[in-house]
Amino acid sequence: MSKADNMLAILWLLKSRRKMTAKQLAERLEIHIRTVYRCIDALCVSGVPIVSEPGREGGYSIPDSIKLEPLFFDAEEQKALLHAATFAREAGYPSEEALGRAVAKIKRFSNPDQLARMERRETNLEVIQPPPDPSLRAALAEVETSMDLQLSLEVDYMTGYGDTVRRRTIDPYGLVHWKSKWYAVGYCHLREEIRSFRVDRMSGLSITDSGFQRPPHFSAREFLLDSLLAESGLENEAHLISVRIQGSPQALDDLCAHWLLGHALAERTPELAHFKLDEPKLAQVAYYLLSYGGTIRIVEPLELKEYIVDIAASLSEYHRT
């Protein structure tokens, strides 16, 4: 039997009997006594309250006050877990090996009909993303270990798309997956403030002996989103201008789902979307709106229309020549 099977067998033997020694467990399961010791240690690490009593009348036992109910998943729960695992793997989830073991356990304790149904459903959902870089998984695992141990992390960080690389010390508070990229959010000792860092721009990661405390109730997701909106100028409503766009409901739905435009949405009707944007971002929005072709129409401001006309003319001239 596998280690997981041995652990489960030991668990139920101890629960069904008052007390058993390591020798009795080894004989009952026909395994080596050292395997029993390793399984007992693994069960204790996983949180099972196994009591060890030394001496002639000693042995291992589980207190009667502890209830160990078997954990079963129905068909829909199994499907949801398998689909969630697919998303995690394609996103470059750092603990893919452990995730694979968890999925294997679900399959191992299923009957043939359940297993066939799970394997069929597992292939019903697929995710298209850039192939995760093996070095990125290693970096993510290092960041995750740093967070778990609450020990500062030293990294060589490349700023932007240039060649400037600087050694930094970071206290990572959380990881965020956004637009196919992983971000580590935490305190930067160089800048002396909380910053976000793209993990794919990190190299030479090294966990230090310096500890840190994660701020209570801190949300890495909220910090990253707030910082992006601040860069877009949306935090200062005094400088916001109205952008009204007409179009088909489907096109407007896609517009409102954009991370920037969605947070700038002020009013929405079936055929009109009203946004409030910072003026310097109009050119960026114009480039994005070009992809919608004739499915949308700019109602206001005139400046946004002129941006689109100028960009389209410039692109036309560029490709013509």
TrEMBL record:
InterPro entries in alphabetical order: CBASS_pafABC_assoc_protein, HTH_11, WH-like_DNA-bd_sf, WH_DNA-bd_sf, WYL_dom
Every Helix-turn-helix type domain range: 8-60
Domain of life: Bacteria
Signal peptide: none
Domain (WYL): residue spans on this chain: 139-205
PANTHER family: PROTEIN PAFB, PTHR34580
Protein's name according to its UniProt entry: YafY family transcriptional regulator
The species this protein was found in: Cohnella terricola
